[in-house]
Amino acid sequence: MNLIGQGAAGLVLGLAGGLVHFLSLAWNLKLLLSGRTWRALGLQGLRLAMTATLLAGLAHWGVFAVLTGLAGLLVARYLTLRTRKVTTS
């Protein structure tokens, strides 16, 4: 795969994986607050394993794919925080 293909694939996969990762935080919080601690910990483990697997898979394509994948994760984090109302008390 050429450099442009690596970058595009990394960015798209990082964005998609990041959206799943960060949007599932609300579900994880609901599980934790409802007293389902083991399910929340299991979901947390799945979230982290999915993100690590995504980055490891991108590493097979090269360092540029990993860097653009991380950029996609950061964009997903920004979009998630931007669309959610964050309040501090």
Task: Provide a descriptive summary of the structure in words.
This protein has 89 residues and is mainly alpha-helical. It is 84% helix and 0% strand. It has helices at residues 3-33, 37-59, 63-83. The longest helix is centred in the first third of the chain and has 31 residues, at 3-33. It is elongated. The mean pLDDT is 91.
Poorly predicted parts: none
Please, how many domains?
2
Helical percentage: over 70%
Strand content: under 5%
Q: Look at the structure and give the mean pLDDT.
A: 91
Helix tally? Answer: 3
Shape: elongated
| Class by SSE composition | mainly alpha
Which features does this protein show?
0% strand, transmembrane helix, F1-F0 ATPase (N-ATPase) AtpR subunit, mainly alpha, 2 domains, 89 residues, elongated, AtpR-like, membrane
Detail the topology: elements first, then pairings.
Elements: H1 3-33, H2 37-59, H3 63-83
Helix pairs in contact: 1-2, 1-3, 2-3
Protein name: F1-F0 ATPase (N-ATPase) AtpR subunit
Keywords: Membrane, Transmembrane, Transmembrane helix
InterPro entries: AtpR-like
Question: What's the gist of this structure?
Answer:
The chain is mainly alpha-helical and 89 residues long. Helix content is 84%, strand content 0%.
